[in-house]
Amino acid sequence: MSTLLQVKDLKVAYGGIHAVKGINLEVKEGELVALIGANGAGKTTTLKTLMGMVKPAGGEILFEGQSTAKLAAHDYVKQGLVMVPEGRGIFSRLTVEENLLMGAYSRSDKAEILHDMERVYHLFPRLKERYKQLAGTLSGGEQQMVAIGRAMLSRPKLLLLDEPSMGLAPIIVQKIFEIIKMIAAEGVTMLLVEQNAKLALQTADRGYVMESGKVTFSDKAAALLANEKVQQAYLGE
Ligand code: ATP
């Protein structure tokens, strides 16, 4: 497996607050990697920095071996780096279908776009039933489905998911994670930030634990689930 993303000694500061203090992580092609940790550990900041939304104070981000430092905002999606943000960021006055098509705005391959729409509707039959509904009137779980579906329409090489379980009932969270597994099984590489550490590690291949801006553990997901310190601090055991 080749390395898709490599983060070296990444540092991020907001004024005097050092949110990320020199972390290293990597994601290989085909992997599903979880980034877990308590509130304020620096997980969201890490994802935002990977997407160029926050400028690092130090370190390096390599995507497919190339530094992302000079990429313009609109280049990220074209390069295949796509994020599903916390809070989802869907367009509430557009229909489900219009939202999904937004994900394909930089593509011109109409037949392939239609094919990808069908693929999303296959993953989310509920969205197919509701394709004409205004996205703002969907349930929280359905909106999360739209956000993931829209990201799929941009054919990501690396999909960054920020807290997909946020604000959702446990049964819906299960459903979303089943879909994340299906997307992974299709070969989409993902980096998943999650508060629900147990579910994230049960779903992922590997994981990183962040604490106060540093990576404190990194291992295969199964090994992290079995690690007593991780269990005590993050898994409620
Ligand atoms: P959560 O799970 O609560 O979202 P997190 O691990 O994603 O937590 P971050 O949101 O990355 O953590 O926050 C890391 C630290 O950086 C926190 O101390 C936070 O208060 C601070 N921080 C985040 N965004 C900003 C900002 N725009 N300005 C100043 N400080 C910020």
TrEMBL record:
Keywords: Amino-acid transport, ATP-binding, Cell membrane, Membrane, Nucleotide-binding, Transport. One of its GO terms (biological process) is L-amino acid transport. InterPro entries: AAA+_ATPase, ABC_branched_ATPase_LivF/BraG, ABC_transporter-like_ATP-bd, ABC_transporter-like_CS, BCAA_Transport_ATP-bd_LivF, P-loop_NTPase. It comes from the Bacteria. Residues 5-237 form the ABC transporter domain. The keyword Nucleotide-binding applies. Belongs to the ABC transporter superfamily. GO terms for molecular function: ATP binding; ATP hydrolysis activity; branched-chain amino acid transmembrane transporter activity. This is ABC transporter ATP-binding protein.
